[in-house]
TrEMBL record, chains A, B:
Name of this chain's protein: LacI family transcriptional regulator
Highest taxon of the lineage: Bacteria
Chain ranges of the HTH lacI-type domain: 10-64
Record keywords: DNA-binding, Transcription, Transcription regulation
GO molecular function ontology, one term from the record: transcription cis-regulatory region binding
InterPro entries xrefs: HTH_LacI (IPR000843), LacI/GalR-like_sensor (IPR046335), Lambda_DNA-bd_dom_sf (IPR010982), Peripla_BP_I (IPR028082)
Length: 355, 355
């Protein structure tokens, strides 16, 4: 049967053959009433309906070159930080009748560039979630197609970001209120804009609060990265020999100069908690830990993680809504990023330092 | 400047106007060398290059109606079970030069039907990950477009599934070896094919092993669903009054008839562990718990979860590879599902029952 498995849906040529007329006659009959005799038109409509002919929806996109499709590029689909962003983006696109194409670049700038080159002419716009490209590479694409970036600010490209300044201020103030004076920042990927901004904000607010702030890393923004950070966390300070030997948990405890940690993201924070526990230290007994993002699972790790919650779903939805407005011709009122509020969620991974 | 923001990339009409020739002449010059005089052709190529004209890639799809795009529909993007499936699917599509469109239906069969109707003519095929539609609805779409289902078997539609029979056998045998004789299955959505199959497989193997198997539910396949299941888990068996009163942890402990639980998925299992802990019971001390899927976070909950790991990434990749083969005209050799092996990962949420 024709049409089975969709591999041979009837075309305008099939309808023309069945009616014994030219394809152009079928086209006129179906698209411009009155230009074909009523009798012929009626017959063509009848045959088209019987054969299950449907106009090729691609045809309508040809005059403008628009596809009503936008692409969202994420740096790592396995990171649960993206699930709410994708849902927000997907729903905003669907509400506007647009289709969202998702692309996962597995933390590779090369793959990100390839995907964008390939899709350049077949999508109406690009949304980059936590892009790993250079500012220059992002601007090059943005000159050719409407684009928004999420979680990142690039000169001349509209963006939507969480309020990292206010967030880092809340996290550092929380730790200072608990009595912590030495905080280590566990750094994420060097190519991450958010990583740079969070570190700068933390250093600035730490100075105001009279805290000692240091940074270690960069690390992969994964649980494995957190384990590596945990081991490094104890390294820089000189080890103190005790009667029980230098390698035991007590040595680790006395050697650490930092009493609190803020990690670039929750996966790093969770990995660091696991790694510290493996080294014989306790969280928050020996070290308090704060994450960023509030991913699914941040409240079921041990202990439940204190973290800076970004409005992830709103980031995705706002980014796509702004992108669609640009596609329809809107000029951004200003080139300043849209900033959405963050919120510190205090759970059990932070406590006063040991006396 | 023309071309800025991509809203007015030059078309064939712009090139024609600039050259003072008909658009059809430009088309011939660019697509069929030799049909236009060498001098005119050279001029057209030069102008097209200077104006930054690129052929509209949509045009090449028109004759066949193919878009080199396939869609993957997931029931809930917030469930981490989909991340590895999406990555596998995305990579298989990219390797073949296809674009993967992702659609999230938020557990709604209505939304799933809408998405499929909307995309019916603009994608080359459908992959359904854990569809929430009826078999009849799935078959209706499958008659119009190539389709594969993942995590679900529907008569006449090719599918890729984990080995639920072997998996449930491994889980039940593990519990029997530990000495458990009473197992409760926490049921997921009633519309989930995997849920029905897992329950049937567990009941069959439990009978062979001489275990008492019961089922509670259905529950939403989320952490919140697991909390609800934990409360229900203790309800059916009559409560035993003790000297310390009926509502305390001791009463709960003595009242439960089940010593082990297998949950439809890891989110339900993790929620149930949290709920049981909240009710004063310990896992695995009072009740052993087994999940399904081995999602990110299954090893950082408390205690780390024993779970049946499905080959999620391979499910996604194999599903898309089979779909692309169908799009290119391959006939499935058989209508039987492709079955990929599952693996029981034993962690700390299972232990022998209290004597």
């Amino acid at each position: 049967m024709v049409g089975k498995q969709g591999r041979s849906m009837p075309t305008i040529y099939d309808v023309a053959r069945e009616c014994g007329v030219a394809p152009s006659t079928v086209s006129r009959a179906l698209s411009r009433p009155g230009r074909v005799s009523a009798r012929t038109s009626e017959r063509i409509h009848e045959v088209a309906a019987r054969m299950g002919y449907q106009p090729n929806p691609l045809a309508k996109y040809l005059p403008t070159g628009r596809t009503e499709t936008v692409v969202l590029i994420v740096s790592d689909i396995a990171n649960p930080v993206y699930s709410p962003m994708i849902r927000g983006a997907e729903q905003a696109a669907a509400q506007a009748g647009y289709t969202l194409v998702l692309s996962d670049i597995d933390e590779s700038p090369d793959r990100e560039r390839d995907v964008m080159q390939k899709l350049l002419r077949t999508v109406d716009g690009f949304a980059l979630a936590t892009s790993r490209l250079s500012d220059a590479a992002i601007r090059t694409i943005a000159r050719q197609r409407p684009m928004v970036t999420m979680n990142r600010v690039t000169q001349q490209v509209p963006s939507v970001v969480p309020d990292n300044d206010q967030g880092m201020r809340a996290a550092a103030t929380h730790l200072a209120d608990l009595g912590h004076g030495r905080v280590t920042y566990i750094s994420g990927p060097a190519t991450s804009w958010a990583n740079v901004v969070r570190w700068r904000a933390l250093r600035a607010v730490g100075e105001q609060l009279g805290m000692k702030i240091r940074r270690i890393g960069p690390y992969a923004p994964t649980v494995a990265g957190g384990w590596a950070a945990a081991a490094d966390l104890l390294k820089p300070a000189p080890r103190t020999r005790t009667g029980r030997g230098s390698a035991g948990p007590a040595a680790g405890r006395t050697a650490t100069a930092t009493t609190a940690v803020i990690a670039y993201n929750d996966l790093l924070a969770i990995g660091a908690m696991q790694g510290l526990s493996d080294l014989g230290l306790s969280v928050p007994g020996d070290i308090s830990i704060v994450g960023c993002d509030n991913i699914l699972g941040a409240d079921w790790c041990t202990p439940p993680l204190t973290t800076l919650a970004a409005p992830l779903r709103e980031l995705g939805a706002t980014g796509i809504r702004n992108l669609l407005a640009m596609i329809k011709g809107a000029q951004p009122r200003s080139r300043r990023p849209v900033v959405l509020p963050s919120q510190l969620i205090v759970r059990e991974s932070t406590a006063p330092p040991r006396a």
